[in-house]
Amino acid sequence: MSSEKIVTLRVNGDEVKLIAPAHRTLLEALRHVGYVEVKCGCEKGDCGACAVLLDDMAVDSCLTLAWQAEGREVTTIKGIGTPADPDPLQEAFIETGGAQCGYCTPGMIIAARELLNENPNPTLDDIKKGLSGNLCRCTGYTRIFEAVSLAAQEMQKVGETA
Q1: Average pLDDT of the residues of the chain
Q2: Is the separation of the CB atoms in 114 and 58 below 8 Å?
């Protein structure tokens, strides 16, 4: 008897069907079908590099089994914005220098997107708490916190909701 299952989910608005053994993580499944923008970091939920939005909630895809995403909406960094139409968070990370090597940036932006969806006017403490599950080894976090704050301000100026 096979423990593989056909899993159907929506990734960045597109329906994706994949065959996944019961133990395959969402990280492994996404990367297997070409979503390499989901970074593989620690594979134990400590770094946040693999974060995706699962029905608008940030989750570590290395701790989420693929079958748990069945029928749900998965958003990767490519679903947040594009080079031609970047999200205010992406623009703010560029403007403040919040992205250094860039490895943690997708996960940081995913976590920040969930934060701004829930709290469009976060304090510095709110931002620190909202990003506390994400590690960066390059920036010292100050520029990342500035980026999230700047994005929140810019989104409020134009009346954008996340």
Answers
A1: 94
A2: yes
Q: How far is CA 29 from CA 7, 8, 42, 132, 144, in A?
A: 10, 11, 16, 25, 29
Closest-CA residue to 48 (of 136, 128, 115) = 136
Give the model's pLDDT for residue 158: 81
* 22-71 confidence digits (pLDDT tens): 999 999 999 999 999 999 999 999 999 999 999 999 999 999 999 999 99
What is the value of pTM for the model shown? 0.93
Give residue limits of the domains in the chain: 4-79, 88-157
Fold classification of 88-157 is: DNA polymerase; domain 1 (1.10.150)
Enter the CATH code of domain 4-79: 3.10.20.30
